[in-house]
Amino acid sequence: MFRPILLLPFILAACTASPSPAFFGATPQTTTVAGRDYTVFRKQNRVQVIRHGWASPRDRDMIPEHMLIAVAQVTGCTPVVATFQGDSGERRGRITCPRGR
């Protein structure tokens, strides 16, 4: 007999953002940009940003820019645009921060 409730823990686990190994130990911070949620992981001057949820091909055009906004919101630092690599689901790059950030 199929019991959908037994799948619930696996479904919920799939909904959380997990960092790549380089960002293990970083505290996740979630923010919303243009109605879409992003999780940002930071280690010193490096960040990883992960988009939550599905995005249509048309929506994906703006997501890289929204990811940079999410990074700035969460860290208070400036993303170094040329260093960001990845796709509309996950990107990594560097930030420059004012002293004390």
Describe the structure in brief.
By secondary structure, the chain is an alpha+beta fold. The protein has one domain.
Write up what this structure looks like.
With 101 residues, the chain is α+β, with helices and mostly antiparallel strands. The chain has one domain. Helices cover 24% and strands 35% of the residues. The protein has 3 helices and 5 strands, in the order αβββααββ. The chain has helices at residues 8-14, 57-60, 63-75; strands at residues 29-33, 36-43, 46-51, 78-86, 90-96. A hairpin with a 2-residue loop joins strand 2 (36-43) and strand 3. The model is unreliable at 7-14 (pLDDT under 50).
Key features of this structure:
single chain, 101 residues, alpha+beta, 5-stranded antiparallel beta sheet, globular
Largest sheet: 5 strands, antiparallel
The unreliable regions are 7-14
H/E topology pattern: HEEEHHEE
Terminal Cα separation, in Å? Answer: 54 Å
Task: Tell me the β content.
Answer: 25-35%
Mean pLDDT: 89
- Globular, elongated, flat, extended or rod-shaped: what is the shape? globular
Our Rg estimate from Cα atoms comes to 15 Å
Structural class: alpha+beta
Largest sheet, spatial ordering of strands:
1-2-3-5-4
Please tally the helical runs, counting DSSP H or I stretches of 4 or more residues.
Answer: 3
Q: Give the count of structural domains.
A: 1
Helix proportion: 10-25%
The number of strands is 5
Topology, please?
Elements: H1 8-14, E1 29-33, E2 36-43, E3 46-51, H2 57-60, H3 63-75, E4 78-86, E5 90-96
Antiparallel strand pairs: 1-2, 2-3, 3-5, 4-5
